[in-house]
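explain this:
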Amino acid sequence: MKRNKLLQFFSATLLAAMLLSACGSSVPNSSADTSAGTTGQSSAQEGTGQTEISFSFWGNQEEIDNKLALVAEFEKQNPDIKIKPIYTDGGQYQTKLQTWFSSGDTPDAMGIAGDIIYDYVKTGMFEDLTLRIENDGLQDSWAESASQNFVYDGKQYGLPHIYHVYCIAYNKKLFDEAGLAYPTQDWTLDDFTTIAQALTKGEGSEKVYGLGGYGAYGANEYIHVFGDPTYGWEDGFTIFPNGTDGFVKGLEFFGNMINVDQTTPGPDSDANDIGFDSGRFGMYIAAPWWISTWQTQIGDNFEWDLVTFPKVEGGAWYARVFPNGMGIPAASQHKDEAWRLIKWLCADEEAQAIAGKTGMPNLTSYATSDEFKNTLEPGWKPYNKQAFVDALEHTWMTQNTGIFDQINTIVYNEFPNYLSGNLTAEAFIEKIEAKGSEIAE
């Protein structure tokens, strides 16, 4: 690729608002991160028989510590490889990626989020792993929906490592007070609506809502839950690749919840500033990153559990997924050693057990095992971990860089106009299609 093309690409992505999957809060950069990349420094260690490779990743302090524990275990099992870790928080990682790829001096192995990988793989910056996966017989190691998050043009550029996905948490105390049966895996959209209405009560700062958790930026969630994405990327950039029926259904369903039934807060509501632990939500959009906080802060205040999203006639309620994977930059100088590392991280049950402390493990054999389902952190109360596993069957994923972010911004900005009646669903669609045509030109 010519250098001016690279510069144009990175100028565009630097302007994009992006969200790394399950980004961590600020952590110090690793001391090893002293240059743009490390491919020139990775080498056979003189006199040791080891090959040193660099490995980059992001996270909060808990996630960083987890990755370092994985590195230590891998080195123990693979004494011929020395890992040089490079890490930072999620907010800075995107900038690091742009610096590494624009210079051509990259780490040998790399953590990558599914919601930002598109712009990198389409410009040839990641190694195609398809043949390695086939040669090692790993095709069925992960759910198809998990692998698909790292596929572009029929080729797989990342291995699924861990993921975060939405399901529904419910407050058993509020259900009991309302005389409601707890939701089960076979509940329907009509059940959900009836339950949300029955749970909603009160006014002002004391109001209890049937559903919370999508928050002030819920618009992009609402329009995707019934399965029709706003844009596609697997075969090139497209607008409404599956049509607009799901988009309209999502607008109408959640618009009714906000404006008519008032069973969930609108985007400007102060209720978006409080969480499930407040006790003011009968149901709440749950993600794995909340569980530790809820176990600690809710304590004995009320009992709670998880359930998958309700069944939808003729379709499904799609859960947003935040997939974290592992890839090999095309510029890596130690691709075989890097492959051994990322294969172990993503396809070894012992590695997935360690990784599963900071997210949902992607390896099917471990994620569906009794060991995983029954393993809890010390002091935690039992909860339905299976809901997060089952949620992976029907998921959607956004992209958060470049042209995709322009579409995301329209959705966020225009949704309040739809709620206020100043924008019809048809006019909403026209605005998105117009931006898509502008981008295509």
